[in-house]
Amino acid sequence: MKEAATKALMCFDTDGNGLDQTEFTEALQAFRFNRDSKKMRDTISNIFAKCDVDGNGRLTAKELTAGLPTSVLSRITKKLEAGWAFDPAVWATPSKAATVMGNSEAEVGGDL
């Protein structure tokens, strides 16, 4: 479960040096984690900070594997099992997720 979710998230590393906060946020949005609410933005920021054990502002696959909460892993795994696939034409450029997803398509959900 962790490896597949980590691999999917790392697809959003557009510059090849680990996921920065923006890439991580967009990756989660691609899996329908709603970043529109302050609570969710704070939660995503807290997850990023927890995973970024070396404090360099970038997440490696190893950091993600070790630090992602089970609830996040589970949700990503369910999307992958349902057929979600990374499409570089849609997601590979910064801020594309926000343009593609828009507020109307983002799921409004509870806590991660």
Q: Secondary-structure map with pairings?
A:
Blueprint: H1 2-10, H2 21-30, H3 38-51, H4 61-67, H5 70-81, H6 88-91, H7 96-105
Helix pairs in contact: 1-4, 1-5, 2-3, 2-7
Assigned CATH class: Mainly Alpha
For the biggest sheet, the summary is: none
Q: Overall 3D geometry?
A: globular
Query: Number of domains in the coordinates?
Result: 1
**Fraction of residues in helix:** 55-70%
Strand content: under 5%
Which architecture would the CATH scheme give at its second level? Orthogonal Bundle
Structural class: mainly alpha
Give the radius of gyration: 13 Å
CATH superfamily: EF-hand
Terminal CA distance: 17 Å
- CATH topology, by name, is Recoverin, domain 1
Total helical elements? 7
GO molecular function, one term: calcium ion binding
InterPro entries: EF-hand-dom_pair, EF_Hand_1_Ca_BS, EF_hand_dom
Organism: Emiliania huxleyi (strain CCMP1516)
Domain EF-hand: 1-34, 39-74
Report on this model:
This protein is an all-alpha fold. It has a single domain (1-92), classed as Orthogonal Bundle (Recoverin, domain 1). It is 59% helix and 0% strand. The protein has helices at 2-10, 21-30, 38-51, 61-67, 70-81, 88-91, 96-105. α1 (2-10) crosses α5 (70-81). It is globular, with a radius of gyration of 13 Å. The chain starts with a helix and ends in a 7-residue tail after the last helix. The model is unreliable at 95-112 (pLDDT under 50).
